[in-house]
Amino acid sequence: MCAASFFFSMTLIDNEKPTILIIDDDSEIRYSLDRVLSRAGYQIIEAASGEEGIEIVKKKSPSIIFLDIRMGGMTGIEALQHLRSVDQQVPIILMTAFGTTQTAIEAMKFGAFDYVMKPFDQEKVLGLAESALKAVKDFEQADSYEPKLKSEDYKEGIVGNSPAMQEVFKIIGQVAASDATVLISGESGTGKELIARALVQHSLRSKAPFIPVNCAAIPDNLIESELFGHEKGSFTGATAQRKGKFEQCDQGTIFLDEIGDMALTTQTKILRVLQEGEIQRVGGSEMIKVDIRIIAATNKDMEAMIREKTFREDLYYRLNVVRIRVPSLRERTEDIPELVDFMLQILEKQKKAKVRKVSPEAMNVLCRYSWSGNVRELENAIYRSAVMAKGEAILIKHLPEEITNAVHIEKEDTKESSEVSNEEAEIAAISTALDSVFSTLKTEADGSLLKRLEDEMIIRAFNETGEDAAAAAKLLGLTQTDLKKRLKEIQLQE
Ligand SMILES: Nc1ncnc2c1ncn2[C@@H]1O[C@H](COP(=O)(O)OP(=O)(O)OP(=O)(O)O)[C@@H](O)[C@H]1O
Ligand SMILES: [Mg+2]
After folding, report:
1. What integer pLDDT is reported at residue 442 of this predicted model?
2. pTM of this prediction?
3. Torsions phi, psi of 55, nearest 5?
4. Distance 185 CA to ligand 1 centre (A)
5. What SS3 state is found at 474?
6. Cβ of 191 below 6 Å from ligand 1
7. Which is the closest atom of ligand 1 to the Cα of 214?
8. Are 83 and 110 members of one domain?
9. Closest C-alpha to ligand 1, atom 18
């Protein structure tokens, strides 16, 4: 929505201008945000620290708060908690340069309304402010109350800065306090189990047992006994009574992995657990109450299975209370460099390989490969490459052949050459990457193509170096003064 129409609609709804509090220790950020928001008709109050912001909220009641996550003194998350104790309802939008897993999940858990990444996208900022105001209105009308969540350190490593993964993290944060049944879907190797574990870690059942059951790996005739237990003598080999996973897991969470592979008869029994909260051992007559949360995962097309009548529709609706769709790695190639870095760190910690670098050319190949086995396949490839690199940086020559071959084939097609040297391959990779940048920018940039390209490089270098101006300037070949000037221009750009 453009700023003008936004202002117009706001003034029509409400004659009093909504007030926005901006808390950031960086005056340039406050200034640029102030400009965007005040032009859209908001009244702005600025605070240069978390402490100052809290004092302001005690005296005035802003409609929305924009809060920086990284500040000297009180951090954004600390300030968020304090602010929440002063005002339970005001929507707080966190501002972050790094969309880390931790930031996204923590922010949502502590009751942030949303978060926005720096440098700002003006439309996004305005859109967020608008939806925050709407949420307050809905909240007041609905008279509902969302309980505040407890603090918890987020430790499991789920990497993902891509918008698609950030959405996944948001849902994890949002359902953290509920006991809702969750259905996680996604291709093989996308991280479904990792996400199930994150859900549990952030749930009220985090201290209770978590039992994963791979429905595809257990034969149909054994799965019911495995899940529900059996009475002595109920079938050949049942020499003693045995408790199943559901009874062992009482108060905890069962992770039904590959639920699409579960036989229809077992599906019926799972439905009963969800409906009645009780199980029956195989060969038994007693109904046993269990208190279990179910998280299920599948890489199958469940909707198609329902049409083919191989999956019960009623069970599907019971499981699909919250749906998390995990994107394939192809849909988030921008996560690959960070995933690779994370995997190398783990290999080093596990003392399996000590490699800390990947050449830009090799990284380019990794980013262009299609990864049908998703993150698991990437993990394998990195392990194999790291072993081959023997302590050096990973170069193209260390990558598994099937990957370089697959990526090379495309170039061989265009160059009609059967042998492509690594150097040529690297040049071709850069050229292909630039081709797509060029075709995107040539239509959009209209006279500012070079500047747009430079801006993108500056933003990337700045983020990549952890906002280290000296390192970013060095990488870019700019002086620090020039870099700061350019960053400021980018912030102010409309
Ligand atoms: N976002 C991520 N960050 C870091 N590691 C990840 C991520 N996603 C997946 N992995 C790693 O990739 C591997 C595969 O993940 P996981 O087993 O959770 O996938 P899955 O979707 O359950 O696969 P499958 O369908 O084959 O069971 C694991 O070793 C996991 O740690
Ligand atoms: Mg799995």
Report:
1. 67
2. 0.60
3. -60, -40
4. 12
5. helix
6. yes
7. 27
8. yes
9. 191
Q: Which ligand is nearest to the CA of 196?
A: 1
Predicted pLDDT at 12? 33
Q: CB–CB of 84/64 below 8 Å?
A: no
* Sheet hosting strand 92-96, strand order edge to edge: 43-47, 19-23, 64-68, 92-96, 114-117
Ligand 2 centroid–CA 40 distance in Å is 47
CATH number of the CATH domain containing 466: 1.10.10
Residues 183 and 321 in one domain: yes
Neighbouring residues of 306: CB distance < 8 A, sequence distance ≥ 6: 312, 313, 316
The stretch 17-31 carries a mean pLDDT of: 93
Segments forming the whole domain that contains residue 191: 178-325
Closest ligand, as measured to the CA of 193: 1
Question: What per-residue confidence (pLDDT) applies to 242?
Answer: 87
Query: Looking at this protein, which amino acid is placed at residue 4?
Result: A
Q: What is the pLDDT of residue 16?
A: 67
With 0-12 / 13-18 / 19 or more C-beta atoms within 10 angstroms meaning exposed / middle / buried, residue 65 is buried
Ligand 1 midpoint to CA 41 (Å)? 46
The confidence score (pLDDT) of residue 148 equals 22
Instruction: Write the DSSP assignment of 384-432 as a string of letters.
Output: HHHHHHTTS-B-GGGS-HHHHHHHHHHHHHHHT-S---HHHHHHHHHHH
Cα of 107 from ligand 1 centre, angstroms: 23
Residues 230 and 287 in one domain: yes
Using a 6 Å cutoff on CB, does residue 299 contact ligand 1?
A: yes
Report whether residue 157 contacts ligand 1, using a CB cutoff of 6 Å. Answer: yes
